[in-house]
Amino acid sequence: MFQASERSGHGRGLLTAGVLAGLMLGASLIATGASAGECPAGQTKPNAREAADVGHDGTTDTVIATLDVDKEQGIKGRNFRMRRLVIEPGGTVPWHSHAERPAIIYIVEGTVEEYASNCAAPIVHKAGDVTAETKDISHWWKNTGDETVVLISADLPKM
Fold first, then answer.
1. What's the CATH fold of domain 2-155?
2. DSSP state, 135?
3. Model confidence over 71-125: pLDDT tens digits?
4. What are the beta bridge partners of residue 84?
5. For the chain, how long is the longest CA-to-CA vector?
6. Which of 42, 45, 112, 138 is the most buried (most CB within 10 A)?
């Protein structure tokens, strides 16, 4: 079942088309080689960074849509979820793991820094970048700039 904040037939159709267009854009960016910033050379190390005590400050996290992938595709115990995150200057997304929740992030606006468990230096992501968040990643994000950052996140959280 597709769920979204807009439930009218016409609005839901437009939202569905928008979600599909966004997914196709993300897939095409990955396929054409557009990717997010990477860990700087020589900085990739296992357990390079410990969990940080960072809050969910200055960040708005809005679920745009969900899809029950058990009913849709037989993938048990998962939802497909799309979110829009807005990170104000100085705002943070707290330390979290992707051990059980893979995700793909598209940076729509701004520049944001990622502090990942496998990189000793901050990773800079800019508008237009796409990054995959895999089971091997734990991290937190911070907007260190003067402009608002907007991200679109698509993930498969457990139900």
1. Jelly Rolls (2.60.120)
2. T
3. 999 999 999 999 999 999 999 999 999 999 999 999 999 999 999 999 999 999 9
4. 62, 152
5. 52
6. 112
